[in-house]
Design a protein that fits this description.
alpha/beta
């Protein structure tokens, strides 16, 4: 792959990293490597060094290009997985299991389901409000692992990551942080001391709602050339359990990363504008917005049916689950049976896209008004 000059800005990194080496006649983009099987002989190079004998479940050059790009953005070493939940499952599986796990009270619902399975198997799970920093720090005493989201999904709660991770490190507590909502453009948990970062690459990284992928990121190889032990554990888990991404999905995700900076910049600007306007809307009782990012949530007056009618009345916003694509999405989160009862029945999660903000506003405004005051 192309050698990167040091000190490049993220807007440049997303465009340049993971490209083939520059030489006359070289392609600009890496090819899609479609092979499950690799030749093993001759087993030695001319200098007597053993070749890297591979199999399609263990490695693929197209994965490696995508992993190089994500690793560069997060400041670590990445591994891609078949989906965001495959990455999350792998991270949970490799965490120390001989002590309590500290986790958000309201994480992403499928992450919460996996954590509940861990608890049902006999492990102590200490659930915390991630906004209550003293309570989180207190829960770390005697714990072995900490699972973080910031902002949380869908309540948009923000954790004080620098303080919480510092305190976890001081207590030798392993730290995993789901960075899907923030993206590496807005925060880099590894730089704060986290051990593992996870993403649903389905979302902002790929950004076009056309693939399923996940990724974990751990610290880069140190000056002693010894791989990070978390990386080694995650690689072994991926290889043995087979939750691997397809080469075509990896290629599409890498292509999506090329526009991550401009997509996210536009989406964040739209979200900030909409959050400001929604704060004074007569048909909105609460806006949940951390002041940055492209995700927000609103609560509307009335019943769950009223909130459903708002989503259904939208014509530009798409009523659908998922997030992080170029299109704006709206959904009532409690419509899903697995969602936490702590999430209000009338909460609507908004994934703000890159459309014209005036079109987004007009559509949302008419949906909020027409469902309460029909003609």
């Amino acid at each position: 792959m192309t050698e990167q000059p040091p000190g490049l800005a993220p807007a440049t990194v997303v465009v340049t990293v993971g490209r083939p080496a520059r030489r006359p006649g070289a392609p600009v983009n890496p090819p899609i490597e479609l092979s499950s099987t690799y030749a093993a002989y001759p087993a030695l190079e001319p200098d007597g060094v053993a070749t890297n004998l591979g199999y399609g479940r263990a490695s693929n050059a197209t994965w490696e290009a995508f992993e190089e790009a994500v690793g560069a953005l997060e400041g670590g070493r990445a591994l891609c997985f078949a989906s965001g939940m495959a990455a999350i499952s792998a991270a949970l599986a490799v965490l120390p299991a001989d002590g309590p796990l500290v986790a958000p009270r309201t994480p992403y619902n499928t992450s919460g389901a996996l954590i509940a399975e861990v608890e049902a198997a006999g492990r102590e799970v200490r659930r915390v409000d991630v906004e209550d920093t003293p309570a989180v720090v207190a829960a770390l005493d005697g714990a072995r692992a900490l699972w973080l989201e910031s902002p949380t999904n869908p309540l948009m709660q923000v954790a004080d990551l620098p303080v919480i991770i510092r305190e976890a490190v001081a207590r030798r507590v392993a730290v995993v942080c789901d960075n899907t909502f923030a993206t590496p453009l807005l925060q880099q948990p590894l730089a704060l001391g986290a051990d593992i970062v996870v993403h649903s690459a389905t979302k902002y990284l790929s950004g076009h709602s056309d693939l399923l992928m996940g990724v974990t990121v751990t610290r880069p190889v140190g000056p002693d050339a010894v791989p990070d032990p978390w990386y080694a554990a995650l690689l072994a888990h991926r290889t043995r359990h087979g939750a691997i991404a397809g080469p075509f999905e990896a290629w599409l995700a890498l292509r999506g990363i090329r526009t991550l900076h401009v997509r996210h910049e536009r989406a964040c600007a739209n979200a900030a504008d909409l959050a400001r306007r929604l704060a004074t809307h007569p048909e909105v009782t609460r806006v949940r917005y951390p002041g940055w990012g492209a995700m927000l949530a609103i609560e509307v007056p009335g019943s769950a049916q009223d909130a459903e009618r708002v989503a259904a009345a939208c014509r530009v916003w798409l009523g659908a689950t998922s997030l992080g694509g170029v299109e704006s999405l709206i959904e009532r989160r409690r419509r899903y049976p697995g969602e936490s009862e702590l999430v209000p029945e009338t909460l609507l999660r908004l994934s703000v896209g890159i459309e014209d903000v005036e079109d987004l506003w007009r559509d949302l405004d008419q949906a909020l008004r027409v469902t309460r005051y029909p003609a």
